[in-house]
Specification:
Elements (H helix, E strand, L loop, with lengths): L3 H30 L3 H27 L19 H28 L3 H31 L3 H12 L11
Helix pairs in contact: 1-2, 1-3, 2-5, 3-4
């Protein structure tokens, strides 16, 4: 049985992951409206991954007979002034999610909930990858985004991203 505080934090994370999916769909829509279909694709794939993360938390809670409460999903920001603003917001959001995962891990550690810590190990690694990917997008935009031909090629690179289901098995 899960510790009450750990279960509460895990439940909150479910809702945060669904919000992340919603947020990234907003980013995808922004880039689609800007004519950058590759970036739109990149964030659409990102939204799919976040939805899957939420579902992994749901399955973990269900496997541990913990009550799940779905909350309303906040409206994501959608009024952006530049491509770089969206990319920076994405990195900031990933850093925020990393903090949330770390808080759950800390709470599990405090009560010696090693099973939850092991479950979260995958997310700790995943967040490292998410932050790196977001940071790399910013670096590429800084290098190439001001030149239309380079931006076109960068957009083509983003279009090549494909969805891959998470590797975590519960």
């Amino acid at each position: 049985m899960l510790n009450e505080k750990v279960a509460e934090l895990l439940n909150t994370q479910i809702n945060k992951e669904f919000y992340s999916a919603y947020l990234y769909l907003s980013y995808s829509n922004y880039f689609s409206e800007e004519g950058l279909d590759g970036f739109a694709n990149w964030y659409h794939v990102q939204a799919q991954e976040e939805r899957d993360h939420a579902m992994l938390f749901v399955q973990y809670m269900q496997n541990n007979d913990a009550k799940i409460t779905f909350e309303a999903i906040d409206k994501p920001a959608s009024d952006f002034k530049s491509h770089m603003e969206v990319l920076q917001a994405g990195l900031d959001h990933e850093r925020y999610v990393t903090g949330l995962i770390n808080n759950i891990y800390s709470a599990a550690y405090d009560v010696k909930d090693f099973r939850t810590m092991q479950f979260l190990d995958w997310f700790v690694k995943e967040q490292g990858e998410e932050e790196t990917n977001s940071s790399d997008l910013i670096k590429k935009m800084e290098l190439f985004g001001s030149d239309p031909k380079s931006l076109y090629l960068l957009d083509q690179e983003m279009a090549a991203r494909t969805y891959a289901a998470p590797s975590l098995v519960l």
